[in-house]
Amino acid sequence: MKVYVKASRGNAQIGIWWYTDDKEVWAVSCPTDDGELDGPYLQYSSSKNHMNLWRKVVNDNLSGNTDNIISRGYKCFERGRVIYNCRTSCYEVTCSDNLINDKEFRRSIIDHFDLKGNQIEFVKLNHYHKEELTGNPAVDEFYYNSDM
């Protein structure tokens, strides 16, 4: 009989995040054990993503004039996810190349998601780069619906 022991992860969280121009972390998260299993990973949700959480996260983090930020689109800030790899017992922080080596960003994510004391790997994914809307609906729709 095999016995599986759950590793102690403390209060660590997994979730979806944005890193604002003011170096703030905006996120939706849950305790790791409340995440959804997706292959070898625990993630915040398999149905929630940056696009459908954008309005909520802006409203949760700002008061007044949220329409201005919302209208800039969910890609207007750096963004990514914190997921947990069950095979390696490692938290993986996905982010763009712009943030992968940024020490201040790394500290902010580790603090926000209570990851200190856990194994953490920062993973570059190209589709998480910051991209402002152009104001041209045809161009914006193309860019927002592709992983360029």
Short description:
The chain is an alpha+beta fold and 148 residues long. The protein is 24% helix and 26% strand.
Q: What is the terminal-to-terminal distance? A: 48 Å
* Range of strand content: 25-35%
Tally of individual domains = 1
The residue ranges in which pLDDT falls below 50 over 5 or more consecutive positions are 1-6
Structural class: alpha+beta
Q: Which word captures the global form?
A: globular
Binned, the helix content reads: 10-25%
CA radius of gyration is: 16 Å
User: Helix and strand succession?
Assistant: EEEEHHEEHEH
Largest sheet: 7 strands, mixed
Count of helix runs? 4
Count of distinct strands: 7
pLDDT averaged over residues: 88
Features:
148 residues, alpha+beta, 7-stranded mixed β-sheet, globular
Protein described:
It is a single chain. The chain is α+β, with helices and mostly antiparallel strands and 148 residues long. Strands 1, 2, 3, 4, 5, 6 and 7 form a seven-stranded mixed sheet that branches. It has helices spanning 50-61, 66-71, 103-112, 137-144; strands at residues 13-19, 25-31, 36-38, 41-43, 78-85, 90-95, 120-124. The longest helix has 12 residues, at 50-61. It has four helices and seven strands; from the N terminus they run ββββααββαβα. Residues 1-6 have low confidence and may be disordered. It has one domain (13-144).
